[in-house]
User: Which sequence fits this backbone?
């Protein structure tokens, strides 16, 4: 795994359910094996991508008048109760993957001398 690029992605049941700590543990493990960690594509995902899949407004647990029905992806297209990942988090994950690919290609095409 040495000299490989990687990023971290985690899902959590709630907004403050430990996903950030999980991301940091994944990044530390990558660095132990001399991998190069790449963060997300915006300031909202600096260490990687995190998805909240259960807690409102992104889950399907407590429908209230406080959250717009557009927040509930699990109900969209007849998928009620599936607790699918909200498109907001899918965009973050896609952005992370795209950034890892771009950094990898830039590294491969650079004139940096690498010793194996």
Assistant:
């Amino acid at each position: 795994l040495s000299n490989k690029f990687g990023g971290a992605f985690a899902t959590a049941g709630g907004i403050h359910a430990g996903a950030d700590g999980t991301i940091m543990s994944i990044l530390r493990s990558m660095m132990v094996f001399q991998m190069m960690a790449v963060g997300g594509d915006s300031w909202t995902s600096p260490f990687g991508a995190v998805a909240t899949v259960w807690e409102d407004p992104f889950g399907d647990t407590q429908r209230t008048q406080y959250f717009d029905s557009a927040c509930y992806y699990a109900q969209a297209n007849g998928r009620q109760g599936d607790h699918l990942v909200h498109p907001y988090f899918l965009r973050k994950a896609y952005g992370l993957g795209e950034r890892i690919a771009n950094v990898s290609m830039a590294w491969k095409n650079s004139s940096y001398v690498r010793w194996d």
Remarks:
- The chain has a mean pLDDT of 80.
- The longest helix spans residues 87-108.
